[in-house]
């Protein structure tokens, strides 16, 4: 992983990485994960069962081996990330867990769990699932034998959505942050998901960054932009008054969908490098951010200016919202 700004590391995201197999731009590809067998393996502690899984995505297919604890870790990660979804996960067993009838029943339940994981694109592209299906991950990574991989799998996941009007540079902001790259070519985004490991206050997080399709006032906000999303970067172009007006509409859609306006967010004015074409003043943008009770961050995806701040500040807002509120203590003498 390459070191980047504010303690961040790209998380297997490059033009030739396996993560590309999971890109949502290929959402119509066939997705399948089938448990095709199981076997018993020995360890210094006790025997354990390993399940063989055949993974298919589009024209790509590969085989992985996973033990129950790896499924269980993925379940816990997804349960935290998508609390509204019932994953029907089989419980742990203290006894008889090596008997053939128990293994067969557990295999059926684990298959039902995988079916749900691959059926929903939003879940399938989350970093925990990408890592679970990674063929380079060893079966022992959660058995204490591979401490570095176990630590990586235990990272907290935060899902961020980058939303805004068409042509405001949502993709450019995301790829500049993740890959430190910028392309002059404009290709309308259907939807994309990027992954990056960052450090915030000494703790590492996996950021799942959803680069959304451009919204307009006639479009309905898709449910996948509200389920399991921890915070939002609302992006407009300082060179487009129309995009600034639209970001207010998009914010209102989010408020209506979420049922409140207290969700973690930052207002992002992109393309500050276009000084001559500027149509939105910093003062106007600041007034809007103040009315929402959030930070304003102006940046340039082209030059890389303040791009890191967009995501570090948003993560800070997410963690601040998640922290338990300090309560006044009353001392009685």
From TrEMBL:
One of its GO terms (biological process) is signal transduction. Transmembrane segments: none annotated. Residues 29-140 form the PX domain. Residues 1-41 are annotated as: Disordered. SMART domains: PX (SM00312), RAB (SM00175), RAS (SM00173), RHO (SM00174). Its main location: membrane. It comes from the Eukaryota. The keyword Oxidoreductase does not apply. This is Rheb.
């Amino acid at each position: 992983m390459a070191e980047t700004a504010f303690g961040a590391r790209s998380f297997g995201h490059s033009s030739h990485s396996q993560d590309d197999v999971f890109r949502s731009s290929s959402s119509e590809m066939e997705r399948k994960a089938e448990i095709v067998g199981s076997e018993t393996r020995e360890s210094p502690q006790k025997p354990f069962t390993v399940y063989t899984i055949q993974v298919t995505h589009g024209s790509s297919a590969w085989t992985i081996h996973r033990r129950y604890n790896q499924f269980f870790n993925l379940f816990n990660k997804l349960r935290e990330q998508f609390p509204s979804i019932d994953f029907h996960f089989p419980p742990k067993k203290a006894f008889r867990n090596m008997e053939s009838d128990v293994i067969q029943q557990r295999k059926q339940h684990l298959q039902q769990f995988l079916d749900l994981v691959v059926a929903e694109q939003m879940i399938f592209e989350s970093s925990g699932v990408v890592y679970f299906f990674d063929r380079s991950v060893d079966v022992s990574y959660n058995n204490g034998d591979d401490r570095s991989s176990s630590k990586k799998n235990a990272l907290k996941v935060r899902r961020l959505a980058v939303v805004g009007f068409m042509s405001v540079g949502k993709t450019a902001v995301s790829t500049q942050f993740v890959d430190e790259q910028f392309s002059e070519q404009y290709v309308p985004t259907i939807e994309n998901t990027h992954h990056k490991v960052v450090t915030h206050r000494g703790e590492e997080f996996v950021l799942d960054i959803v680069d959304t399709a451009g919204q307009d006032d006639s479009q309905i906000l898709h449910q996948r932009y509200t389920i399991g999303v921890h915070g939002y970067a609302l992006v407009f172009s300082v060179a487009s008054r129309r995009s600034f007006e639209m970001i207010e509409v998009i914010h209102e859609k989010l408020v209506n969908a979420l049922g409140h306006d207290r969700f973690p967010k930052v207002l992002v004015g992109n393309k500050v490098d276009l000084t001559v074409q500027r149509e939105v003043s910093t003062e106007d943008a600041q007034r809007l951010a103040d009315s929402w009770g959030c930070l304003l961050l102006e940046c340039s995806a082209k030059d890389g200016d303040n791009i890191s701040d967009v995501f570090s500040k948003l993560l800070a807002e997410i963690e601040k919202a998640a922290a338990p509120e300090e309560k006044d203590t009353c001392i009685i003498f």
